[in-house]
Amino acid sequence: MVEESWGETFRELRESKNLSLSKVSGDYKNSPNYITSKVQLSRFERNESDITLTKISKLVEKLGITFEEYLSYVRDFEQSEASNFIDELQRLTELGNYEEIENLYEKSIQNFSKMNQKIYYWNSLEAKAILASNHIKNYQITENEAQEVADYLFSILEWGQQEIYLFGELLNFLSEALIFEFIIELLNRKSYYNKSSQNKELIILLTKTVTLYFIEKRNKQFSESLINKYRQLLDSPTMDIHNRKEFMYVEGCYYLMIDETEKGKNILNNLSNGYKAFGYPNIAKQVRKVLKEKLENRNK
What pTM, to 2 d.p., does this model score? Predict the structure, then answer.
């Protein structure tokens, strides 16, 4: 069964080459290369019907590209759709507009029901996780939904923005052991994150998020392992100052968690002073606030 955005991607490619349904399908009078009916192809493009992989391969040849190139276009299309959705979710979350997030959730459910494309299902879970994490109404991520996400993430060899974001939003609904297994598996795929700077940025962001998660959970074993791997990721003279400062924040929180209080205080105070010197007083103030709160919590 053909899934995801295959039909929609095919239509965009066909229209970009100004080719008719009849021409591509071979459904015209005296055609020597009939593949399928133009009605069937139209239904495929609208995600209303499947076409066998054999026929898709032949149809793709009519577009002047290889099947492998077509699959690349499909993946890019899905990532673009996911990226737009993620950007909107992040904007609404920053605004605290949970009513609109709920609307996005319901719209994604409707799209998935209508088109049976998994991208809409993952979108719905991302929105639902935000609602559940912020205790909006009675939204919850079920065990089955969490398991579906885990199974999906294990099946993907190269994570993109959608997988990173999905994993990040579902952190609170997965077991600590499973979260650790995921991040270690990703960090071991050096060929993936060394392939491009964008891939490495995604891995750095995810490592930061998961390390902070385990620090907040006071899981010393997993935190120690990840803080070392996080440091190794940044072990490059070309690594930008932003990522290094982000690491300093995580490292400071880590030392406070393992009771090396003075070391943690020094790191966070130096970070705060650095942000202030570079003209970021609000960030400097936020770092000092976090330090104060963590020290107060330790004394309770």
Answer: 0.68
